[in-house]
Amino acid sequence: MRTIFSWGAVLVAIGSLVATPAGAQVIKETVPGITNYARVESTVACAGAITMEVVPEIKRMGYKSIINLRLASEPGANIDAEAAAAKSVGITFVHIPFNAAAPDPAVADAFLKALTTPGIEPAFIH
Questions:
Q1: Facing residues of 45 across strands?
Q2: Per-residue confidence of the chain (126 residues) as pLDDT tens digits?
Q3: How far, in Å, CA of 113 to CA of 25, rounded?
Q4: Is the Cα torsion angle 121, 43, 11, 66 positive or negative in sign?
Q5: What's the alpha-carbon Rg for the chain, to the nearest Å?
Q6: Residues 6+ apart with CB under 8 A from 22
Q7: What's the CA gap between 101 and 104, in Å, rounded?
Q8: Which residues face 40 on adjacent strands?
């Protein structure tokens, strides 16, 4: 039951962050080094994989944090290098490894905590 509640809470939190009130827009852009970039007004952006070289551009785009949901074992996921790149440009970096095959309620709790941390927004989530 806790798993269902926690993941339901994550979905509600994400939905409230990305819900588009009248006049709000989801803006999809092509950014070299970012897969499937979509910005929801000024609160969050969601994307797929990124390259380390794009982290300074994420900072220039106005994001205050990067929330990385990738597993360290995923091909191309270099968590330490991304954390170092974020630190070098002054972006908060949060790694919350999410395993879709074996969801863990603690991951949902960590994600919600990260999203409600003061100063985390706008957040770049991937």
A1: 39, 124
A2: 444 434 444 444 454 444 444 555 788 888 899 988 887 767 889 999 999 999 999 999 999 999 999 999 999 899 999 999 999 999 999 999 999 899 899 999 999 999 889 999 999 999
A3: 26
A4: negative
A5: 14
A6: none
A7: 10
A8: 26, 44
